[in-house]
Write a structure and sequence with these properties.
18 strands; alpha/beta; Immunoglobulin-like; binds alpha-D-glucopyranose; TIM Barrel; Oligo-1,6-glucosidase, domain 2; globular; 3 domains; about 550 residues
Length: about 550
């Protein structure tokens, strides 16, 4: 059962991201669903996580994997029903696992009834004011400004008015099927409050808030000739007009009040690709509880860079009294078991094609486990992405014809996108779909060797990635920890102590001596004769 006296549970929580399409399919249609998740919650319980975050399962045409929401207050029939959702929450809570759902407030699907109403309404109408409709430049022929969509191409699409004439343009920072809401509009705010309350009433423990830093745009939508990728920084001291505008904080404060009016502790986690000092402003008292640490996720396997990011993240969050979070993988980036298998720079969201250079899988997994052991020892909260506990690699050989990420089309087939980290999970060793589904075909194909990564193949097997994650999470929970203090160390090591526990990550290929006479509590890989091999992390006492 949930421990309801633990009001600050989110400060140290390990939160596991479920991508509903790919977790487990209960009805044999090749796509995961809510009942499928419920039936496998025992896996998360034996893993030892505190909470699960569910990526969107709302009615959606799935043009952007459900981040194109057509109805914020229901379940897509493909994923089940509201009853299934309630069953999932009740089962999770019974197992002591909290449930966080995804809130997508920057944009909706173009299928959303309010956007359909806006399209059918006249320029200047109240219906259009809920979105960003503008007259184009050059007599209406060209977009109202020069903003680029995050998925490639212009951030504006022109509509056809009711009389058949070419008309206004609407803003979409992502796909054209994802119109941006106008957060200056009070009806939009009121509608989202209903959405918050709808899920809070259904006992969710919080929300992960999608691209929350883009919700408010700079007055007048001024031109911005740069395209941002990854963590956004000011250019010449100016923040891009679509990111991190001051007005977002007022909205978060309003939401905080709504959440605090409910019993128990309900939390908000910000998805904002900003530098630690800027994300920290979102987690000031009275706003959100925590924010993803994408500066950390973006670091290559490089000790000085990782150490610096740990320091800047902790100091930025400590200054506002918020916990720092840590994350290595999610549904938008190449899985860390694969990206650390390259020694060259990796574009996190670009994907890999079958003809591209392939990662060194063994090296990638070794480093990924070392990186995970390091992450789980850091003070704060950690996010895991489904499949990383299996050491699952990125699917780097998907045929281009099956790709679903809108980036692939919008980039004119230049960027393959994020499908490689979204393929279904293997539960058993049996083909065709490894216990994920009774159907032999799945929404994204599963590679033939996935069975060796399955839960069945690793359960109870000493040294398996699954058993390593279980051991790390159990220890993490039982250790007293304490404040982080850095130990003197060569550049290639990350070496700190927390209370009685010393954590050493060897971010190099050269073995080092282990501290004399230490007791090894956890090792991310085999230790050889009193040494700490390269690309290995230990927790010792
Ligand atoms: C967030 C989601 C990503 C989605 C984008 C647009 O970054 O994590 O998957 O494509 O928002 O909604």
């Amino acid at each position: 059962m949930i421990n309801s006296t633990d009001t600050e549970w989110w400060r140290t929580a390990v939160i596991y991201q479920v991508y509903p399409r790919s977790f487990n399919d209960s009805d044999g249609d090749g796509t995961g669903d809510l009942a499928g998740i419920t039936s496998r919650l025992d896996h998360l319980s034996s893993l030892g996580v505190d909470a699960v975050w569910l990526s969107p399962f709302y009615p959606s045409p799935q043009r952007d994997g459900g981040y194109d929401v057509a109805n914020y207050r229901d379940v897509d029939p493909e994923f089940g029903t509201l009853n299934d959702f309630d069953g999932l929450v009740a089962t999770a809570h019974g197992l002591g696992i909290r449930v966080i759902v995804d809130l997508v407030p920057n944009h909706c699907s173009s299928d959303h009834p309010l956007f359909q109403e806006a399209l059918a309404s006249a320029p200047g109408s109240a219906a259009r004011a809920k979105f960003h409709f503008r007259v184009g430049q050059a007599g209406g022929e060209t977009p109202p400004n020069d903003w680029q969509s995050m998925f490639g191409g212009p951030a504006w699409t022109r509509v056809v008015e009711a009389d058949g004439s070419p008309g206004e343009w609407y803003l979409h920072l992502f796909d054209r099927s994802q119109p941006d809401w106008n957060w200056d509009n009070s009806a939009v705010r009121a509608d989202f409050e209903l959405t918050l309350r709808f899920w809070l009433d259904r006992h969710v423990d919080g929300f992960r808030v999608d691209v929350c830093d883009a919700m408010v745009k700079a007055e007048g939508l001024p031109n911005w000739p740069h395209l941002t990728k990854g963590v956004v920084s000011p250019i010449d001291g100016v923040m891009p007009p679509m990111w991190d505008q001051e007005g977002i904080h007022e909205i978060f404060r309003e939401w905080r009040e709504v959440l605090d009016s409910y019993s128990g502790t309900r939390m908000l986690c910000a998805e904002a690709w900003l530098q630690p000092e800027r994300t920290a402003r979102i987690v000031r008292p009275g706003e959100m509880n925590q924010a993803f640490n994408f500066a950390y996720l973006e670091q290559a396997w490089d000790a000085p860079a990782i150490r610096r990011t740990i320091e800047t993240s902790l100091s930025a969050n400590d200054a506002v009294g918020a916990p720092t979070t840590w994350v290595l993988s999610n549904h938008d980036v190449m899985r860390h078991a694969s990206r650390y298998g390259y020694d060259t720079h990796v574009e996190l969201e670009s994907g890999v094609g079958a003809e591209d250079p392939q990662p060194d899988r063994a090296l990638g997994l070794r480093r990924a486990r070392a990186a995970t052991a390091l992450m789980l020892a850091l003070p704060g909260s950690a996010y895991l992405y489904q499949g990383e506990e299996l050491g699952m690699p990125e699917a780097t050989d998907l045929p281009d014809g099956v790709r679903q990420d809108p980036v692939w089309e919008r980039s004119g087939h230049l960027i393959r996108g994020r499908d490689g980290c979204r393929i279904p999970l293997p539960w058993t060793n049996e083909a065709a779909s490894f216990g994920f589904s009774t159907s032999a075909t799945t929404w994204l194909p599963m590679a033939g060797d996935l069975g060796s990564f399955s839960v069945e193949a690793q359960d109870g097997v000493a040294g398996s990635t699954l058993e390593f994650y279980r051991a790390a999470l159990a220890l993490r929970r039982s250790l007293g920890w304490g404040q982080l203090t850095w130990n003197e160390s060569p550049d290639e090591l990350i070496d700190f102590s927390r209370g009685g526990v010393r954590v050493i990550a060897n971010v190099s290929s050269v073995a080092r001596a282990l501290p004399q006479g230490c007791e090894v509590l956890l090792a991310s890989g085999p230790l050889e004769g009193g040494t700490l091999p390269g690309d290995t992390t230990v927790w010792v006492r």
